[in-house]
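Table S2 (text version). Query chain:
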Amino acid sequence: MSTTHRNALIIIGIACLVGTAFGVSFTLALDRPKPHEVPAGIVVTPSTRQAAADLEAHTQGGLAFRPYPTTAAVEQALDQQLIYAGLVPSGAGAQLLVASAAGSSVAEVFERAAGTQIVVVDVRPLPDGDSSGLLPFYLTLAATVTGFVTMFQLRTHASRLSLRAWLLCVLSVAAITGGMLAILTGTVTGSQHGPLPVVWAALTAMIVVAALWASTMQVLAGPWTFIPTFVFLMVVGIPSSGGAVATSLLPAFYRFLARFVPSGAAVETIRDALYFRDTQDAEPIAVLAAWIVCLIAALLLAARLRGRTPGGQPYHPGRCTPPADPPRSCASRPSPHRGCPSPSVMPRSTSPTKERSSAWPGRSCRRRS
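Corresponding structure-token output:
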């Protein structure tokens, strides 16, 4: 079997494994969401105690109630995304307050558990243009794919870029595409009411992270870059982002990763900017910033250690160009009829004018640069 056919079989096998892993990961994370200690608030009264017991029974103990003194305190906790729902007294019974903007999948779990016996009130509803609450997830997915696919294309069609020019391309595509996604999505869907700079910055940061991860893998893994890039960003990152299903409903493995993966930070930052602009959380912004700083350092270190750029070109830190060849004298030329004349046939005239006129026309003893 030839090397070409063997490589083709290897690529087919890798593609099948990676594609299967992607499907399995999405299925495990999103197919059967189940509540795991979902934070909820309660104003303790006899009626709310009974309602809380009913909700616990329907969710198989998947809720974690926290006591609050008043209904206003519960509503404030919902605005700050400290809880997903709250039981408050209403007349002789209980009322369940939910915030679908914080996670429509969690709100649906509470509504199903409440049934018809508990009145459900959505205090933070989603806009009509994003009734499913998936807009932050779609934007993050688009930013992720844009980041690493662009790096693959740069390696194919612009591999001679220097490392500085490569980083400039990363920043340019991130800023332009992030701005277009933020502006066009809001214009087309009419669902983007949050501050544009925050959404723009979050999408730009996500594209930069995806591009820098792919670039670093191009330096380290070479032709096999696709495997670590796709596995980290798509197989692991997207299902654990909390965009399609809230993190409190994910399995333990994905629930743990959601707090640290860049896609989870991007989803949360965009969601806060769109629907909770008054209580923007700083933690996901710090996570994105930390990823960018660490990946830039990793890329520079990898390029220095491996001696090559993400495009596969030699990397010479501290020098703009490779060292020039040592100068060659005219005397080193083997033939007097090719290049500079041999010393044995050089004119002996001491006059500069005659010396120049006796040389072959159009020829020079100096090597052309």
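Notes on Table S2: The chain has two domains: 38-125, 131-306. The beta strands are 38-42, 63-67, 85-90, 93-98, 119-122.
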